[in-house]
């Protein structure tokens, strides 16, 4: 079976460490595994506009920033196609046909849509385009016949809804679309990285992020001011590691070699956690360690980002070539869809008889 990856990011800001552990790092591993026939990474500008209609400049300016973040984490344009969503008109035609296969009530029940409507304070004024984004996401995935979609846990309901659309389409029009599987990070702490403020999700829209492009000083300041366990007041107090984002970040990022290099008093994270829970371990010491860990992971990413920042015209060429390749693929799928729906009237003499 052909194995195809599709996933993407909204250009609503620079990418952050939540994206890194939730999706980017997995993508790079899959990309380099040599097990995939085609790989597509989409900069979802049209989707970003659904809840940023009054902020088109923000979306436009972040297209190149997301591309830079991709290249910085090791996405390789020789192995993967990076493209811009709004330049692929086929995606929007597919969305139109899929909208007929989904009820309003079904989208209303989508837990991610519900949560985001609340988070964005849309309540009674949800933009229609935003409301429909699970359907357009199904178009993005199926246009490439994606079999594997590496995303964070918040995207699970989107994948479920996509699979329903695939079933419905195939049962009405015959086997045409490919059912995708979600690829979640195996490390639990990476499924949904919390924000610096301890909120459930690090998110560009919530401003609680460490960005891949942050400089070393900014990272340190952010780590040092992170929310921890509010009941852990004196160093001698026993502390909580659950719901304490400093420990969640260590779960997501730290490796035994980081202990050897930066905190040799402890062999691993379990020992550090046990000491914190017993009491006698101050937050500052753990934050200093987390800072060292993050600096060692993010330093090389920042260097690669600087390399590409100095070569922006090349990055634009990468996007241009990728977008052309992606459009050819989406056009092929759209013609399969039109043929299955028997609306390719002028290609088949029998259809208008
Ligand atoms: P926005 O606030 O504009 O929606 P976002 O920070 O949620 O931005 P997206 O572009 O919507 O970012 O998400 C891109 C990818 O990163 C998705 O696969 C999503 O699941 C994943 N992701 C986003 N935030 C996190 C997080 N905090 N932890 C793990 N994965 C995440
Ligand atoms: Mg999001």
TrEMBL record:
Coiled-coil stretches are none
Instruction: Please give the superkingdom of this protein's source.
Output: Bacteria
EC nos: 6.1.1.2
**Cross-referenced InterPro entries:** aa-tRNA-synth_I_CS, aa-tRNA-synth_Ic, Rossmann-like_a/b/a_fold, Trp-tRNA-ligase, Trp-tRNA_synthetase
Its Gene Ontology cellular component terms are: cytosol
What's an example GO BP annotation here? tryptophanyl-tRNA aminoacylation
Task: Check the record and name the Pfam families matching this protein.
Answer: tRNA-synt_1b (PF00579)
SUPFAM superfamilies to which the protein is assigned, alphabetical: Nucleotidylyl transferase
Q: Which reaction does it catalyse?
A: tRNA(Trp) + L-tryptophan + ATP = L-tryptophyl-tRNA(Trp) + AMP + diphosphate + H(+)
Q: Which PROSITE patterns match?
A: AA_TRNA_LIGASE_I
Give the Gene Ontology MF terms in alphabetical order: ATP binding; tryptophan-tRNA ligase activity
Q: Which UniProt keywords apply?
A: Aminoacyl-tRNA synthetase, ATP-binding, Ligase, Nucleotide-binding, Protein biosynthesis
Q: What family does the database annotate?
A: Belongs to the class-I aminoacyl-tRNA synthetase family.
Question: What's the protein here called?
Answer: Tryptophan--tRNA ligase
Report the source organism: Acidaminococcus fermentans
Q: What is the lineage of its organism?
A: Bacteria, Bacillati, Bacillota, Negativicutes, Acidaminococcales
């Amino acid at each position: 079976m052909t194995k195809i990856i599709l996933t993407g990011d909204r250009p609503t800001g620079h990418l952050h460490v939540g994206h890194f552990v939730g999706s980017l790092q997995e993508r790079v591993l899959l990309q380099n595994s040599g097990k995939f026939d085609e790989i597509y990474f989409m900069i979802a500008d049209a989707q970003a506009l659904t809840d940023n209609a009054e902020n088109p400049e923000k979306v436009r300016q972040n297209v190149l920033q997301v591309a830079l973040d991709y290249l910085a984490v090791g996405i390789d344009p020789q192995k993967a196609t990076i493209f811009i969503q709004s330049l692929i008109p086929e995606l929007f035609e597919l969305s139109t046909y899929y909208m007929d296969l989904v009820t309003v009530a079904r989208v209303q029940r989508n837990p991610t849509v519900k949560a985001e409507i609340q988070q964005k304070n849309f309540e009674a004024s949800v933009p229609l385009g935003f409301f429909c984004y699970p359907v357009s996401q199904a178009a993005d995935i199926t246009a490439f016949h994606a079999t594997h979609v590496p995303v964070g846990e918040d995207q699970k309901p989107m994948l479920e809804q996509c699979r329903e659309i695939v079933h419905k389409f195939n049962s009405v029009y015959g086997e045409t679309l490919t059912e995708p599987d979600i690829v979640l990070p195996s490390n639990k702490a990476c499924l949904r990285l919390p924000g610096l403020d301890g909120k459930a999700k690090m998110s560009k829209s919530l401003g609680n992020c460490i960005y891949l492009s942050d400089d070393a000083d900014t990272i340190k300041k952010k780590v040092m001011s992170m929310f921890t366990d509010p009941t852990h007041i004196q160093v001698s107090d026993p502390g909580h590691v659950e719901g304490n984002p400093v420990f969640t970040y260590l779960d997501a990022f730290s490796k035994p070699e980081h202990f050897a290099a930066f905190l040799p008093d402890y062999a691993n994270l379990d020992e550090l956690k046990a000491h914190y829970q017993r009491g006698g371990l101050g937050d500052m010491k753990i934050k200093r360690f987390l800072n060292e860990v993050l600096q060692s992971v993010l330093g090389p990413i920042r260097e690669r980002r600087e390399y590409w920042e100095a070569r922006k015209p090349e990055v634009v060429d990468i996007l241009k070539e990728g977008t052309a390749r992606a459009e050819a693929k989406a056009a092929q799928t759209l013609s399969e869809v039109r043929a299955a729906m028997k609306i390719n009237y002028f290609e088949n003499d029998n259809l208008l008889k």
